[in-house]
Amino acid sequence: MLLTNEAQAKEVKAKLDSGEDFTKLAIEYSQGSSIKNVGGDIGILQSGSMIPAFEDKAYELQVG
User: Fold this and answer.
1) DSSP conformation letters of 9-55
2) CA distances in angstroms from 16 to 11, 20, 55, 58, 63, listed in the order given
3) What number of other Cβ atoms are within 10 A of residue 42's Cβ?
4) What is the spatial distance between Cα 35 and Cα 30, in angstroms, rounded to a whole number?
5) Which tens digit of pLDDT belongs to each residue from 8-46?
6) Integer CA distances (angstroms), 23 to 29, 30, 45, 56, in order
7) pTM of this prediction?
């Protein structure tokens, strides 16, 4: 989900933490139309296909 600033990211995270649906929030808040149109689903990504800082964090996450 591409957001405009840190304040918006914190707002969305709070909504996620309270149980709101990721897909609905991605459609509502995401600034990237390619991501917004698919509800935040970036699909399957190959190692080395993202910028390193993003990729490092993405691969640290647990599935789900």
Assistant:
1) HHHHHHHHHTT--HHHHHHHH-S-HHHHTTTT------TTSS-HHHH
2) 9, 5, 21, 17, 16
3) 13
4) 7
5) 999 999 999 999 999 999 989 988 767 777 777 777 778
6) 10, 10, 19, 23
7) 0.63
